[in-house]
Design brief:
This protein is α/β, with parallel strands linked by helices and 162 residues long. The protein has one domain: Flavodoxin domain (Rossmann fold), CATH 3.40.50. The protein is built from 6 helices and 5 strands. The chain has a 5-stranded parallel β-sheet with strand order 2-1-3-4-5, with helices on both faces. β4, α5 and β5 form a beta-alpha-beta unit.
């Protein structure tokens, strides 16, 4: 079986969480597709502002590459950080470029404080694109991601695939 883990990160918490989940998926051949913002904090804020206005030129190559990769996976896992209780604007563009109609999808979010609304929005967006949400998780951690919980979540996904 094959799993595709797609994540967006600017501070690294979502990346670490995605890797912790993926490390436990021994029943799957795991492919990662990252969207990583680099630069200073101010640059990342500026990029997010661009994205909020519908300008995804800073991640155009990644979006184009996403459309070109083999998306024939048994499971798609989408991980996003929370910004003001919303997923990043890039999330919507990523989902638009995915072929998830009829596919099993797992969503996870990373957040400092809440993230409940982010998960609701992600679920609705994926379902509107035809994806079937089979599981979801929210990982709260103000300074550090909850990697042990993420690994447990990965083990649960792996064990349910048997």
């Amino acid at each position: 079986m094959k799993a595709l883990i797609i994540y967006f990160t600017s501070l690294g918490r979502t990346k670490k969480t995605a890797e912790a989940i993926g490390s436990q998926l021994s029943n799957y051949e795991v492919d990662y597709f990252p969207f990583i913002l680099t630069g200073t904090f101010g640059m990342k804020v500026s990029i997010q502002t661009q994205h909020n206005k519908g300008d995804f030129s800073t991640i155009a190559k990644e979006l184009s590459d996403l459309e070109k990769i083999d998306q024939n996976h048994d499971l798609v896992i989408l991980g996003m950080p929370t910004y003001g209780d919303y997923p990043p604007s890039a999330f919507y563009e990523i989902v638009k470029r995915l072929d998830i109609k009829g596919k099993n999808v797992i969503i996870f979010g990373t957040c400092s404080i809440t993230g409940t609304k982010t998960m609701e929005i992600m679920k609705k967006t994926v379902e509107e694109a035809g994806g079937i949400i089979v599981e979801q998780a929210r990982f709260k951690g103000f300074f550090k991601p909850k990697l042990k919980k993420a690994a447990q979540f990965g083990r649960m996904i792996n064990d349910s695939s048997r």
